Amino acid sequence: MNRFWSWAALAFGLLYFILPLWGMVMFSLKMRRGVLSLDAYAKVLGDEQFQATFSYSTIMALFTIAFGVLLVVPTAYWVRLKLPGLRPFIEFVTLLPLVIPAIVIVFGYIRLYNTSSWLPLTGSTMGTNILLMFGYATLSLPYMYRAVDTGLRTIDVATLTEAAQSLGAGWITIMTRVILPNVLVAVLSGAFLTFAIVIGEFTMAALLNRPAFGPYLQVLGANRAYEPAALAVVSFAITWVCMGLIQLFTHFSKHTKAAR
Amino acid sequence: MAFLDIEHLEKSFGQTKVVKDFNLNIDKGEFVSLLGPSGCGKTTVLRMVAGFETPSSGDIRIDGRDVVDLRPNQRNIGMMFQAYALFPNLTVAQNVGFGLRVAGVAKSEAAERISEMLDLIGLPDLGARYPFQLSGGQQQRVALARALAVRPRVLLLDEPLSALDAKIRVSLREEMRAIQRRLGITTIFVTHDQEEALSMSDRVVVMHQGIAEQCGTPFEVYNRPATRFVANFVGTLNTFEADVTDGASGRVRVAGHDLTLGRALPAGRVTLAARPEMISLGAHPGRETSLTGRIIDVHFLGSVIRLRAEVGGATLAFDTFNDTDVPPPKVGEDVTLSVAARDLLVIGQ
Predict the structure, then answer these.
(1) For the complex shown, is ipTM > 0.90?
(2) Which fold does the domain A39-255 belong to in CATH?
């Protein structure tokens, strides 16, 4: 009897998640009347605006990931190594983007960095792009920090650092040849999560008036019928590919096999 | 001047002074152990020599050069850790060659040195393996090779055998000592295991509450403990209070028996001590003093049987060899023990 309810719960859960997706996929295939076709996908993927916005968001995501890694890995490492007492405070700070809405953050940015401020980042395209990247990095901070911190927890940071120091290594060598390679899977997890966040983000890009993929999705959704569904499926696919890559890297990471 | 001089070294964490006026001079090629219980400051001394802790005061000189202001990566000191500390992302060969790569040693020379080190530790064919594919003993051997590959001036061993099985521990300590002798590298070994310290070292420093209580050869530390702590910590010791009845001739009364130690003693009460092996069950040539007692405990340890007997209100532990023809006495059995009074130690504070 228990077994029956377990299967029933599983089936309900799967239907709850899969049915809407199934409905969306089917709808996206019905652009041509009476037959299933990939017309909506062809139209969306062939759209110059799609290519431009998706490329822009991809590049922004890569810069955000690079900035996030440079910011988070040394910070999490240093906190674990030298300032363990500050960990609760740092964790609290990294959680703030989850409770402060993106719209509040971006209005704060605009007020602080507008053209009449001491650092007028919004006065140029490059400045606004940099501001948007900082915003994306803030939004992805909870995920990136947690992923890296979890990775650091799996290695003996202090002893490995001291071992490397006793062999003559300086801080840069320690970071690049000892710490980073050993938390690479965790960093990649954080990177893929960051990528997924940046690709779908709307508020910041729209309010900073940048040609990102999120605002394009919104505009398309407001004016077309089938294409938004196709785009949503594409977005889901990107997210799933990211998740799959995390699993793949974890699986093929040679030196972490013993820990599993 | 010795090769490694540690003078008036002190270290405080907040208000707590964990190392107090520590002095030690080690000659080139010497193997010195820091022995003591947890929290005695032995690892802190080692970490100050390595550069991982900054001394509150005092000097550390290697080959005449003050190293206190040098960073750990500038001291050319090799170190082995209790937790192996091999880099999980690198193969055995890459681990051994890590320090060489950092030092910018040419690839061909580094490859030669790695091969030489793997031969030295008896793992010539495991260069391509990752640390997780090795046993604990093999990992610690690789850690030793890695520490030695850069030809350090001093080798520091921070309880490297503690995480290993008893059997591997014994074989590895013999190997490590043999390698240390062969290379003639000055070594400081931190341990809380007296057997390791006594069996491996040229000299042993016994530490207690941040102070070096005694520094001497294993023979001296074991047979002539300088303080009550050393006497109690190193080996098993029977201690008993004795009343001095004639200080000039060294006559004392202990547990209802009169003994003559044959050396001058201060008047009043003294603490006498005897190692278990100084006491024999039954009569024994050269051990002229007989004590009568009752067996209260028998521990069969294999080749040796450890017995405890109550003698005039005091409890004495002593050993006898296992003999298949002579079963050990039973609990409650009355026995005669013999001891050479001149062998008894008089323990200072």
Answers:
(1) no
(2) MetI-like fold (1.10.3720)
